[in-house]
Amino acid sequence: MTKETKFPKDFLWGGATAANQLEGASLEGGKGLNLADVLPGGKVRLSVLSQPGFDFEMDTDKYSYPNHEAIDFYHRYKEDIALFAEMGFKVYRMSIAWSRIFPNGDELEPNEEGLAFYENVFDELHKYGIEPLVTIAHYETPLHLIKEYGGWKNRKLIEFFERYVTVIFDRYKDKVKYWLTFNEINGATHFPLFGLGFSATSEETRLQESFQGLHHQFVASAIAVKLGHKIIPESQIGCMLLYAPTYSYDANPENVMYALEEGNLFNFFCGDVQVRGEYPTFINRYFKENNIEIDIQQGDLETIKEGTVDFISISYYMSRTEKKEKTPEEAGAGNLIGGVKNPFLKASDWGWEIDPTGLRIGLNELHGRYQKPLMVVENGLGAYDKVEEDGSINDDYRIDYLRDHIKAMGEAIEDGVNLIGYTSWGCIDLVSASTGEYSKRYGFIYVDKHDDGSGTLERKRKKSFYWYKDVISSNGDNL
Asked: Under CATH, which architecture does the 12-473 domain have?
């Protein structure tokens, strides 16, 4: 980062989590079961869920279900928020579990105990001057809506989502200014189960079902933006994209063109709809070549046009390298997005390639395309952490990772990008979404909980805790 670069004085530093990965209390306070509650724990998770026709039933004899307890934020939120405040957080990104407000998702009246819980969380955040940034839907579709309606394939979910959104906007209009509609909305075509709440009927039907489900979410998101601006005039409502700048493997024009097509589809399709308010022209050819026909009902496109977002938020973990003709041996690991291995990049313990410059590239791409304020609301390193005999956790590898990515953000700001905030993912250890593991740790705060279910849930500050505190207090100067 150049010495002249300064983060804006009102830059929003903080951390990010999701309800399903840290709250626990899966059936307390009137909460109903949601998608995450039936996902098995451990590395088996993705292999079980990747099979078409996953039945959303629990088999407690065969699997563990760590999301049921998670790290028990539901009972420990005051302790955890005090630790966030000690680090100096300006903002805390969290989500509301839909099934805590509407246990089945299709009720007419909300669950007061669930509403009160989040009200208490928001009050605790405000006590320390921390601004909540709330994701409305973060892989937490109520299980009843999945089983009874087929998830977001069913247009009825727009109606249920509108009811849910109206209730939380009315209730928290004086407590929450920043909102995100759907978490990593563009990841749904790769893995519809998390974002769209259904398991594809077959690989042949996956794209048709996924894009229809996405259309329903586009309409629902636009309705939420319009409602938010009406109920909370000062609100700022954003979209949230899983962003991975897409490189060509080499200078072969065939590979360059293929990377462009894949990048447009993954990085820009959903953004174009939610930011520009219309389907991009490049999607027409894709739909045609893949025999996808979207049922767009009267008024849908007008609603989408009227409900464009105020800002764009992204998760950034890795870039993606593409090659038109690739062998199985060349395939890269990573965040559900495929590609081939990049020979210039190292990878994490879980095979996710580490590319700080990719974050600068991505921010420049988004700024150039949309000219909207940007936030990085997920970025972090999942790693094995060791507690030393004296109780310390020396996670210098995490500090190095975050330092390099924060430097890249500083360079993007120097490039002219309007970046307004950064919330590091998993600011406290939680259950991994992709693998259901506790051992894949992201946090500045260590939680004594392990993959076999053992642990006291005691919280400990890691070395990175003090480092990030210094980053925030210096507004990014001390890295």
From this structure: Alpha-Beta Barrel (3.20)
